[in-house]
Write a structure and sequence with these properties.
The complex is a heterodimer of chains A (about 350) and B (about 290). With about 350 residues, chain A is an all-alpha fold. Chain A has one domain: ABC transporter involved in vitamin B12 uptake, BtuC, CATH 1.10.3470. In chain A, a hairpin with a 2-residue loop joins strand 1 and strand 2. In chain A, helix 6 packs antiparallel against helix 9 and helix 7 crosses helix 9. Chain B has 11 helices and 2 strands. The longest helix of chain B has about 30 residues. The interface between A and B is large, with 42 and 45 residues. Chain B: It is found in: Cell membrane. Chain B: Pfam families: BPD_transp_2. Chain B: Keywords: Amino-acid transport, Cell membrane, Membrane, Transmembrane, Transmembrane helix, Transport.
């Protein structure tokens, strides 16, 4: 989209921007329309998953590898901010950034050896890493005098309505915070998608040897993508801890969460800018609503069953995800409005 | 010393059981190059089938194999035809068959939760005259069912190895595993070989399911504990190597047995994952594998 008319803010007048702006307006107005606690709670979860999947997409989509252990980073974020808050009273706003930095360090330590592995081996090694981190956390009662509480997990100390401590009396605040984080992630993804780094990542993901022979340092590009991914996943982890006020290894570091993130992103369309977000917007409400209304004793795992069925059908008939069709409709609409699609030249 | 020996023997025997759950995975991985995340789920299906036959017809679990093994073969064959082959064909020009991996992961989650809905979350256990029986050697206690399981594992490994070495189908399977293009050029119908390989891979889980039910509970998620462990075993033993899977299983069994005895079971799983990562970094072809497989 380099050849858009106008510069700076004036280019927002181009029809290409009508739909994104409409979507933004809808997202901002969304909680004002239906003032029900359940509705806002589900909306928050949708945006939370969208943050996780959009972060996953930096490495799982753009870089073309298949990480199945992203819950590790969410866990690092959640545990760092919560432990800092409990032990030293450091506000989770700062703890969130510390967690993000720690997650980046972990990503580098994990990424440097594991990116040597190809395809499925990389996926398996990422599972092993998240499981090791979970097992260590579960078996640690306290370390250097800091209570970790093993399998029981941690309760975030209540402060009431205290915006300085990332705690709010009403859910609506959380909605706008997670929306802001999501917009930040998507903006960065958009910048990367249209930068040299983005092209390098795609080239490295499609054919590593060919890309390297052209002088691209593929491993370095992948590490940058993984670091960004880990940073924002950790931030989403802290957000979750503050929203739910209770974290435990089997929840925030579980393999289930890692798989869910990857599934949603892939069904939405891995490697596309908005595919993971669309995936979360479609799948999470289905999952949550069926969880709320159908999880009687008779339909114990129905929402997971639907996820499984959807991914099987998606892999058989639409392995590139739903975004492909959406994109086609989108550009058709843009054409009608008088805008320019990139393929039209 | 005797205690040490008892832990060791228990580890070896349990490892044999792990080995038989992993040989199907190594075969499927080695031949079709598909990471089957639903492997534990197929094991769970075999366990439910064996349990059903034993309770329904009052059959002995070991005897039930004559029904369960062909049944599992059919389940595997049909899965390959209905799910894996279309997926493989759809992504012919993609280099890493990642969508098949995700397909099997989807099957895993779907079938597990389907069974949870159909049969509920309660644990079922099979009572046999020899459940819980032990052989006593000196002060050592060796579980009888575990010893039987070990014997069946060794037997299954031996039979499968002979089959792969001596029969035409076995040779075709190995040829496709080594180089699918060359095998195709030699006139081998690759997709038919895939069907049979997947069928045999799942059939070995029929053996596993039958020997597990006298010992452990049957539950919709009973197969999951074998899933990641089987990947570790397969990588440790070398991809596609059937004896390697048995040996890898024994190594994992012994490590788990000692770690479980001197630390706890949860740490044991952590140690297994660390061994897994070290194998991937240092010797990705595994113990029995060849350099080019990695």
């Amino acid at each position: 989209m380099k050849d858009e008319p106008g510069v700076g803010l004036s280019r927002l007048k181009s029809p290409n921007w009508y739909l994104p702006i409409l979507m933004l307006v809808l997202l901002i107005g969304n909680p004002l329309v239906l003032d029900s606690t359940t509705y806002i709670q589900v909306s928050i979860l949708v945006l939370w998953y969208a943050c996780l999947t959009a972060s996953w997409n930096f490495v799982g989509g753009f870089a073309g590898v298949l990480p199945l252990g992203h819950a590790a980073f969410a866990g690092i974020g959640a545990y760092t901010s919560t432990l800092l808050f409990m032990n030293w009273g450091i506000t989770p706003w700062i703890g969130m950034l510390v967690g993000g930095v720690l997650a980046v360090l972990a990503a580098l330590v994990i990424g440097i050896p594991t990116f040597k592995l190809h395809g499925a081996y990389y996926a398996l090694s990422s599972i092993a890493v998240v499981e090791i981190i979970r097992i260590i956390t579960e078996n640690t009662q306290s370390i250097f005098g800091i209570q970790v509480n093993g399998t029981q997990g941690l309760l975030v100390p209540l402060k009431g309505h205290a915006p300085l401590y990332f705690q709010f009396g009403e859910k609506i605040y959380f909605y706008y915070i997670i929306l802001a984080i999501l917009i930040l992630i998507v903006t960065i993804a958009y910048k990367i998608n249209n930068s040299k780094l983005g092209y390098y990542l795609v080239a490295g993901g499609e054919d590593q040897e060919a890309a390297e022979s052209l002088g691209i340092n593929v491993t370095r590009c992948k590490l940058i993508a993984l670091s960004l991914s880990a940073f924002f996943t950790a931030i989403a982890g802290t957000f979750y801890a503050q929203l739910v006020l209770y974290i435990f290894p089997q929840g925030i570091m579980a393999l289930n969460l890692s798989f869910e993130i990857a599934f949603i992103a892939i069904i939405g369309g891995r490697g596309t800018l908005l595919g993971p977000v669309i995936g979360a917007m479609i799948l999470v409400p289905i999952g949550e609503i069926s969880r709320i209304y159908l999880s009687g004793s008779r339909f114990l795992g129905i929402h997971l069953m639907m996820y499984g069925a959807i991914i099987v059908v998606a892999m058989l008939y639409k392995p590139q995800g739903m975004m492909g069709s959406f994109e086609k409709w989108y550009w058709m609409l843009v054409d009608k409005l008088g805008g320019k699609s990139p393929n039209a030249g | 010393m005797e205690y040490f020996l008892e832990v060791l023997i228990n580890g070896v025997l349990t490892g044999g059981l792990y080995g038989v759950t992993a040989i199907g995975l190594t075969l499927i991985f080695g031949v079709i190059k598909v990471i089957n995340f639903a492997h534990g789920t197929y094991l769970m299906i075999a366990m439910y089938a064996a349990y059903g036959v034993c309770v329904g017809f009052g059959m002995d679990p070991y005897l039930s194999m004559i029904l369960i093994v062909p049944f599992s073969f059919a389940v595997g064959y049909v899965s390959q035809v209905v799910f894996v082959t279309p997926c493989l064909k759809a992504e012919k020009d993609v280099r890493e068959p990642v969508s098949v991996l995700l397909l099997t992961a989807g099957l895993w989650i779907f079938v597990n939760n389907l069974f949870l809905m159909l049969f509920g979350a309660n644990f079922r256990s099979l009572q046999t005259p020899y459940s819980g029986a032990v052989f006593e050697i000196g002060n050592m206690m060796i579980s009888r069912t575990l010893l039987y399981a070990f014997c069946f594992s060794v037997l299954t490994t031996a039979l499968l190895t002979v089959f792969l070495k001596k029969t035409n189908m076995g040779r075709a399977i190995r040829a496709v595993g080594q180089d699918r293009e060359a095998a195709g050029l030699m006139g081998i119908n690759i997709f038919k070989v895939y069907n049979v390989a997947f069928g045999i891979g799942i059939a070995t889980l029929g053996v596993a399911g039958a020997i597990i039910i006298p010992m452990f509970y049957v539950h919709p998620f009973a197969g999951d504990v074998y899933d990641m462990r089987d990947f570790v075993i397969v990588v440790l033993g070398g991809l596609g190597s059937v004896p390697g899977a048995l040996l890898g299983g024994i190594i994992v069994g012994v490590v788990e047995s000692f770690a479980g005895e001197y630390l706890n079971m949860s740490w044991a799983a952590g140690i297994i994952y660390i061994i897994f990562l070290l194998t991937l970094f240092l010797r990705p072809q595994g113990i029995f594998g060849f350099e080019k497989d990695s």
